[in-house]
């Protein structure tokens, strides 16, 4: 494609992008595609000859879009959002155009130095300890893997990188049973074995019980195991439960455990001074992760990973083959040594655009709106005789279920809510997801989409109410 054609098509696409965002509510939130729908429309082989942009774009509209779930739709209430914003999209366009690979300072000094400053801005804006160092990782899964590998190195006197884990006592990791599945995956990748991830019971609010943590550690010590790390959740994925950080930190200190804090979603709330209590005790953490790509209006992927001791991180990951020597080692950050991948995208640029475009106050305003919407929805659930709140709502996720007064069989309730969710999502008018809390099937509604307004949450509640009644009539429950 010649530059002139690029210019023309880029302008067309920007118009399309603005129209898309303006008219996004015309699309079904959740893709209505069936398995194999798109594959059946795609040629089995790549074309031998280049094709016209118009043809490629027509297929994008007609073949690809139907298979898209619209994460930027204001009625997207599922999982946690993967938010975007106009400022972030513009930065992504520039990033794609520059095509920078920022593995070392020299391969784009601005990419490295902007990342350094953005991590400081975010650290200070969220009230994190002033001596911490941050680095952008692709995802929280990767950040937590970095934490586990660093903890493994520290616990073995940096021997596991040298000679493996063959001569080590069993290294043990503790986390609540509500912990995100990425921790189990990371433990497997780190070569520790998932049997050595010990799940700790939670209380009625789905937060880790410190006494149970202490018991598990004591029992492991009696068996000759090596307690190495505890993962505390600030905002679990199931219900945004907040683990008691001060109590966990005290235990971590007593037994010499690495304390990793996973605040992948909830960490963004710390931009609000009135929510900083959720990370009380954070100064005792060894590592911390939160995802601006979830709730902070920054396109996926962008995870902020912080450590209290940079040297341990660097000692775990540093490599210096001849072809990567630049003569500037020690003077500048070479972020390839701060994580797993060598190659790195210029992710700091989108943070810079977002933070400057909204300002901290602009972001705070949006977060407060989201938090208030969730409280409104929670009140509707609580004041309805046939609905039930299933977990506290410390932030903007409401866990609830339909519970008609004449049904009490737990399996029946689970099936009913599963059916309700399927019908709601098939409507295309909203998208929610579910989880199980202590065996109960629970609907999750997150009020955190960048563009969500009061009317979308009100409409969601009306739909849920109406659909539950329709379902009850269908099943002759009433
Ligand atoms: C979403 C989430 C993760 C995983 O995030 P990725 O960036 O997709 O890896 C980890 N922990 C918690 C608590 C989460 O909510």
UniProtKB/TrEMBL annotation:
Its cofactor is pyridoxal 5'-phosphate. The modification N6-(pyridoxal phosphate)lysine is found at residue 294. GO terms for cellular component: cytoplasm. Gene3D superfamilies: Aspartate Aminotransferase, domain 1, dopa decarboxylase, N-terminal domain, Type I PLP-dependent aspartate aminotransferase-like (Major domain). The keyword Lyase applies. Its EC number is 4.1.1.28. One of its GO terms (molecular function) is aromatic-L-amino-acid decarboxylase activity. Keywords: Decarboxylase, Lyase, Pyridoxal phosphate. InterPro entries: Aromatic_deC, PyrdxlP-dep_de-COase, PyrdxlP-dep_Trfase, PyrdxlP-dep_Trfase_major, PyrdxlP-dep_Trfase_small. One of its GO terms (biological process) is carboxylic acid metabolic process. PANTHER family: GROUP II PYRIDOXAL-5-PHOSPHATE DECARBOXYLASE, MIP05841P. Belongs to the group II decarboxylase family. This is Aromatic-L-amino-acid decarboxylase.
């Amino acid at each position: 494609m010649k530059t002139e054609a690029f210019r023309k098509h880029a302008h067309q696409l920007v118009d399309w992008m603005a129209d898309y965002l303006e008219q996004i509510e015309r699309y079904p939130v959740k893709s209505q595609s069936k398995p194999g729908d798109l594959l059946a429309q795609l040629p089995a082989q790549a074309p031998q000859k280049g094709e016209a942009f118009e043809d490629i774009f027509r297929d994008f509209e007609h073949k690809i879009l139907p298979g898209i779930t619209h994460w930027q739709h204001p009625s997207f209430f599922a999982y946690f959002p993967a938010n975007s914003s106009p400022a972030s999209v513009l930065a992504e366009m520039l990033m794609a155009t520059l095509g920078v690979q920022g593995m070392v300072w020299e391969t784009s000094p601005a990419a490295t130095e902007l990342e350094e400053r953005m991590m400081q801005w975010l650290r200070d804006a969220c009230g994190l300890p002033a001596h911490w160092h941050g680095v952008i990782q692709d995802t929280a899964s990767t950040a937590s893997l970095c934490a586990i590998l660093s903890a493994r190195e520290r616990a073995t006197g940096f021997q596991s990188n040298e000679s493996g884990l063959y001569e080590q006592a069993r290294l043990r990791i503790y986390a609540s049973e509500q912990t995100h599945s990425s921790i189990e995956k990371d433990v497997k990748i780190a070569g520790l074995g998932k049997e050595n991830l010990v799940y700790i019971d939670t209380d009625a609010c789905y937060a880790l019980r410190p006494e149970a943590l202490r018991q598990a550690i004591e029992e492991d010590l009696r068996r000759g195991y090596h307690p190495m790390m505890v993962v505390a959740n600030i905002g679990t994925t199931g219900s945004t439960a907040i683990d008691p950080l001060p109590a966990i930190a005290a235990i971590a200190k007593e037994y010499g455990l690495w304390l990793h804090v996973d605040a992948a979603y909830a960490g963004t709330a710390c931009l609000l001074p009135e929510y900083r209590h959720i990370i009380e005790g954070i100064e005792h953490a060894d590592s911390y992760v939160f995802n601006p790509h979830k709730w902070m209006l920054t396109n996926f992927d962008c995870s902020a990973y912080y450590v209290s001791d940079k040297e341990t991180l660097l000692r775990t990951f540093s490599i210096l083959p001849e072809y990567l020597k630049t003569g500037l080692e020690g003077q500048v950050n070479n972020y390839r040594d701060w994580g797993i991948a060598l190659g790195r995208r210029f992710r700091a640029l989108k943070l810079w655009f977002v933070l400057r475009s909204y300002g901290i106050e602009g972001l705070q305003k949006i977060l407060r709106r989201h938090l208030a919407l969730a409280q409104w929805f929670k009140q509707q659930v609580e004041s309805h005789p046939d609905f039930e709140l299933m977990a506290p709502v410390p932030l903007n996720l409401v866990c609830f279920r339909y519970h008609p007064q004449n049904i009490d069989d737990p399996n029946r309730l689970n099936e009913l809510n599963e059916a309700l969710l399927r019908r709601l999502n098939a409507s295309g008018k909203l998208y929610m997801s579910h989880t199980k809390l202590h065996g109960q099937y629970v609907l999750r509604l997150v009020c955190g989409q960048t563009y969500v307004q009061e009317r979308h949450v009100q409409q969601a509640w009306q739909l849920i109410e109406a659909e539950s009644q329709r379902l009850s009539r269908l099943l002759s429950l009433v």
